[in-house]
Amino acid sequence: MIRRLRQMLDLIEISYFVFLGAVGAVAYILIKSDEWSDLTTYDAFKRLALGVVSGYIYQLLYSNYDFPNSIMAIVSGYMSVDFIQGLMKKLKPK
Question: What are the residue boundaries of the structural domains of the chain, listed by start?
Answer without folding.
Answer: 2-91
